[in-house]
Amino acid sequence: MVASERGKGAAIVILTGAGISADSGVATFRRPDGLWEGHRVEDVATPQAFARNPALVHHFYDERRAKLASVTPNAAHLALATLERHWPGPFLLVTQNVDNLHDRAGSERLIHMHGALKKGWCRACDARFPWDGPMGEGARCPVCETIGMVRPDIVWFGEMPYGMDVIDEVIRNCDLFVSIGTLGAVYPAAGFVQTARYVGAHCLELNLDPSQGSIFFHETRLGRASEIVPQWVDELLQDVR
Ligand code: APR
User: Fold this and answer.
1) Cis-peptide, bond into residue 32, ω within 30° of zero
2) How far is residue 241 CA from its own chain's centroid?
3) What letter does residue 227 receive in the DSSP assignment?
4) Rounded to an integer, what distance in angstroms lies between the CA atom of residue 54 and that of residue 202?
């Protein structure tokens, strides 16, 4: 069953992960060697790692932020922005990705549940703000002007993802839940499919390989996101255009 079979007002929630940006040249997280761009996740993506070695963590995220200038949204990001523009029912895109490829593709009803590389967070005044270029240990907060208290606005392991109240509410009311390019290894995102299934939504997975949560989906389509996502969006929009 596809959403259009439930009517044009069907509510769609889409969850994306690193796999959707892989075809743009952004590295995924869990590679066979267990390293993420040469680092163990616990050395760069926990508050403890930041407290222990802020220079290393800043350097890591500064490099990844700089890399965004050399990558562009691929056909999968663009297809989801097209879907949002044309879909007549409720729509929400939730991404675990900290890159800005969905934003640059034109997605607007978008939650970056794990934060964003292009944002900073001042631990002195709690403000969050756009950030371009390197941050480093000596960054000055543009709001309170304190130096050395700005960190990347990234949700690290052990921290609370953004937008959970809204995401939970929207999933509980959705008709179609689609997971794209995520391994399903990190909670709470990995559990969204179970909520969606519990409330009776049709659950579809689009991924290169079956994810760890594959058994919870009614349907799985395997392939590269830049190929299978535009195909799926075309099918969905055929009836509403
Ligand atoms: N097209 C579609 N899927 C792909 C592609 C591709 N071209 N390339 C890889 N994949 C799939 C892989 O098969 C894998 O299932 O994308 C998934 C990527 O998994 P992870 O690297 O674990 O990334 P993700 O699931 O997004 O990680 C979740 O973990 O480290 C934390 O906060 C970080 O947001 C991240 C979260």
Assistant:
1) no
2) 27
3) H
4) 43
Question: How many Å apart are CA 22 and CA 74, to the nearest integer?
Answer: 9
CB of residue 213 inside a 6 A radius of ligand 1: no
Helix boundaries (H) for the chain: 19-22, 41-44, 47-52, 54-67, 75-86, 101-105, 164-172, 192-198, 225-238
Which residue's CA is minimally distant from atom 10 of ligand 1? 19
Over residues 186-215, the pLDDT tens digits come to 999 999 999 999 999 999 999 999 999 999
Active-site annotation holder among 58, 77, 112, 114: 114
Please check whether residue 111 is in contact with residue 167, taking contact to mean a CB–CB distance below 8 angstroms.
Answer: yes
Alpha-carbon distance values, 196 to 27, 136, 169 (Å): 28, 40, 11
Q: With a 6 A CB cut-off, is 19 part of the ligand 1 pocket? A: yes
Distance, CA of 51 to chain centre: 25
Task: State both tokens at 14.
Answer: 């889409």
With a CB cutoff of 8 Å and minimum separation 6, the contacts of 145 are: none
Q: Which of 190, 212, 114, 194 is nearest to 157 (CA)?
A: 114
pLDDT digits (tens, 9 = 90+) for 82-111: 999 999 999 999 999 999 999 999 999 999
Burial 203-230 (b: 16+ CB within 10 A, else e): bbbbbbeebebeebbeebeeebbbebbb
Residue 8 corresponds to which amino acid? K
* Residue nearest ligand 1's atom 23 by CA: 18
Instruction: Verify whether residue 39 is a known catalytic residue.
Output: no
Bridge partners (DSSP) of residue 221 are 206
